[in-house]
Amino acid sequence: MFGSLRVRLPLVFLGGIVLAGLISTGIAIQLFQKYAHDQSIRELTREANGIAELYSNAVNAAFVKTSKHPLRDAPTFARASLERTTGDRIYWVGPPPFPGQESGLRELPSETWKQIDWVSGKRLIFQFTPPRAARAYYAVANPVTIVKNGDVIGAIVVAQPKTNVRDRVLALVERLALAGALGLLVAGGLAFYLSRRLVTPVLKLSHAADEVAAGRYGVEVPQNAAGEIGHLAERFGDMAVRLAEAEALERNFLMSVSHELRTPLTAIRGHVSALQEGLAADPELREHSLAIVEAEAQRLERLVGDILDLAKLDAHRFTVMREEIDMESLLERAYETFTEEARQRSIDYRVEVRARPVIVSDGDRVLQIVGNLLSNAFKATPDGGRIALSLAQTNGVVRVGVEDTGPGIAAEQRERLFRPFVSEATGGTGLGLAIAKELSQALGGRIDLDSEVGRGSRFELVLPTA
Question: Considering the entire predicted model, what is its pTM?
């Protein structure tokens, strides 16, 4: 279950969200805790300043001697009311300013004074645990000074439990936890939706790949998939179509090879059997049978050689030489190869040289291409026809043209003419043009074809000069 991409993708997605949420929550809690602490101290300081000022004013008023009030009376201080209003605790630190009189303040014991430097007359912010209290408090001590002589008589301490800050942080954590849970639900739904959108076409592609691996190429690929998945599906569909075409071509190739090999072998076997059984006792019949056996053996040799050449070209297991080639001399060699056949068949066979370039290429391969083009032209041209071989150079390329007056080639047949075992002439193997095309491309060139039905064809080998 957990090995499925449909499960792992949402889990990774949610895991990333949870991790990011935990880190963000930790940072938020720390920042809020600091903010809450600073805010509490500011509020406590403000309240302590106000309470200390009230009490200081009352104390200073009590210390003013008049004829009506010669004695100093302790000021009444509504401590309980102030504590209920502010939620803080109010203490007095220092000796009683009015001995024997009730001040209305809680007095901290003398052992607690050691934590509070009230004698210095400076405000002090500190933490302490009040008597009979089970928790710590934040506290601010404000000195009480007699204005008349500047004496510090004690300090007002305003304290607030630390749990107030903790309660605020806990409230924030609860809200963050609730928001995180809701966010996880939304993210989980979104992750599940996205995983289905992403994984479903991938699963279909996986199934299609299994079908293609089993040799079934008529597969359905995901349609209208978005982004890279759609591009992958489109390319996979093209691959399946090309694999089907390649298998069909391979099957046709094997059938064609079998047929082409069987034909000369059948003729050779028949004539050899006739010779062995003495059916061709007449010397003329024996010579005729032997001539047929030799011709079919040569045909078989050419066929096997062409198949091997084509296989090497397809597998790129051949070497291209780099040498200087005199194209005029090469055309003369190719031309001389077919002069006797042209004479016997009364074909108007001519060569036209309009340039004498020297190129850098593989001479044997170029001669093989030109020879295949001439061989194809002689097979297509009837007796008494015309074949022209030409050489020209334009715009940095060499053009070798082979023009014939054969039946011509229809437009829809031109592309398939360069496929193996496709021949418009009788007695050919159908490999010459396929080999010529592959060789020309290996040499960095190409073969152009211009043909019209009823008027003949012109094949042109185009090669770079270097």
Answer: 0.45
